[in-house]
């Protein structure tokens, strides 16, 4: 066999490259579209979680003066003076409320202090402001004499910060001790662990309910199984809001389940089921169960029943035979379903928001709260980035063990 | 399940009886909540539960009151129009881009396939709350929040993974010699695409489009964050209804949505069978 000449090799390589480019050109439009409409927004969220220039823009001169501050005592008169002038300016432009909100985030309880001080400083005019500004500030509230407050202000003035990640992990940075567990309210780690626990419970429930049903369906004739699968697919295709509505109708105090229980005399008092974590778990199990059943069923369909029959006829007991032979063969379907259910439930928002009450809220709900109510977008972005990191880790696992392109629908 | 062999007696029969009853209970759990909604939507009273009259089948306990309430409320009518308008626009974009990309991804000489596939499928995996938060920041800066264009682009992005998955599935085992034959006989690439590739993958394209449509039709988190009052859709209207004033018009719209999902389910199943038949002929 003669080897290729250089020209031939080059031609082959260029033909190969051309083919690769052609294939890639098909993907380019969608790739660009997804990068612009989906990846860029998420990148902007990540950026926002570390980039927060608001304070730096509101009080640039104070922060400049604070650069020379040793951090041991109250900043000098000169710095306080500059701050008083800037606060005066902000009060006139009606921006002191914004500063109050920012300071409150950095140092709890500062909202009212900033607002009342701003009112007092705003009354000073001309020379008065320059001479008495610092004193007015210190007289307005004793908190202005606290060094840890000025430390917090200095940190809030940084344009780039990882403080929101510290908050999201229930940590804080102290001038003397460094990073430590937050002394005041610790809510986020607890909420993350609650979210993960609930997702785990939902996944286990889906597996416990989905496994026997899939096994049963896999043992039926193809036609009969397809008929019964409609009962699985119909909920799968039904709007999420419809299914959540159904659970509200079922679980509420004078709802269908309570009326039934009281009607047949099982109980005299209605159970309080709606607006609890129980309601979240039940409704989400119902919503996500098809994601478990469909991959499990398709794996079980492909298992030859003669393996089990062989084990049984060779004298193994049914339960050990099941554990040693059947269960291992269904693991691909089980892990695919379980990972899918877990991934979806960790990031769930709508159902907990509607049926969960305060007790059944998950991490998504607190992100929505910071987006819509408390307007702490940076903290929402940091919490969201942590959730995203968790999901991507799970997605990576899914891709490794199941293969992202093996996701099947319907 | 295979028939109980002779060498198993009582315990085997008990086991299979338990399996059967558990399975039927799970099926009941799956379907019952959906079936409960339908009769409740004909309630005469403004309640979410069965009245005495309904349980004793009194004709006057049932009415179409909540259905007429929906179709006489401009808010619901706007929501219905919005849902279809946004859904259809998003579906067209998602289907066109997704089909084209799936054709590329299915080719053997696609570079970095695994990475690109993972990236293109990610809108399906990333939690909606994160997508919605990111889009809110980004689209507001571009002036795309609170208008139709922003919502349509967002929903199109969310729908594309489903198109890629369904079209890729129909392209599995695609015979590329058909394409080469077409090109050899002098057809231009565009003609080859429409006359050879498209007829074979059409079932996948249509079911992908249906998935993309239902994704948009059912989506509420992005709408909650990004849409203005003019872009309220059916799920958005249901969400605020469930939060603020619960009344059975939500059940009436839910019943209509259940009928829609039955239609979708039947269509998808017919398409799946057709696709299997088409590829069966090709093999």
Helix content of chain A: over 70%
Corresponding CATH architecture of the largest domain in chain A:
Orthogonal Bundle
CATH superfamily of chain B: MetI-like
The N- to C-terminal Cα distance of chain B equals 31 Å
Report helical residue fraction of chain B. over 70%
**H/E order of the elements of chain B?**
HHHHHHHHHHHH
Mean pLDDT metric of chain A: 88
The N- and C-terminal alpha carbons of chain A lie at a distance of 51 Å
How many helices of chain B? The count is 12
How many domains of chain A? The number is 3
N-to-C order of helices and strands of chain A: HHHHHHHHHEEHHHHHHHHHH
Structural class determined from secondary elements of chain A? mainly alpha
Question: Mind telling me the CATH superfamily name of the largest domain in chain A?
Answer: MetI-like
Query: What portion of residues of chain A belong to β-strands?
Result: under 5%
**What's the tally of helices of chain A?**
19
Radius of gyration of chain A: 31 Å
Main β-sheet description of chain A? 2 strands, antiparallel
Transmembrane segments (chain A): 21-47, 196-218, 227-253, 273-299, 325-350, 379-398
Protein name (chain A): Putative spermidine/putrescine transport system permease protein
Pfam families (chain A): BPD_transp_1
Membrane topology (chain A): Multi-pass membrane protein
What does this structure look like?
The complex is a heterodimer of chains A (410) and B (283). Chain A contains 19 helices and two strands. Chain A has helices spanning 6-50, 54-58, 60-66, 77-92, 96-106, 110-123, 126-140, 147-156, 163-168, 188-219, 222-237, 240-251, 256-263, 277-301, 306-313, 318-346, 350-355, 363-372, 377-401; strands at residues 171-174, 178-181. In chain A, strands 1-2 form a two-stranded antiparallel ribbon. In chain A, helix 6 runs antiparallel to helix 7 (126-140) and helix 18 packs antiparallel against helix 19. Chain B has 283 residues and is mostly helical. Chain B has a single domain (82-282), classed as Orthogonal Bundle (MetI-like fold), CATH 1.10.3720. The radius of gyration of chain B is 24 Å and the shape is globular. The two termini of chain B are 31 Å apart. The relative contact order of chain B is 0.12. The mean pLDDT of chain B is 88. Chains A and B meet through helix 1, helix 10, helix 11, helix 12 and helix 14 of A and helix 1, helix 4, helix 5, helix 6 and helix 7 of B.
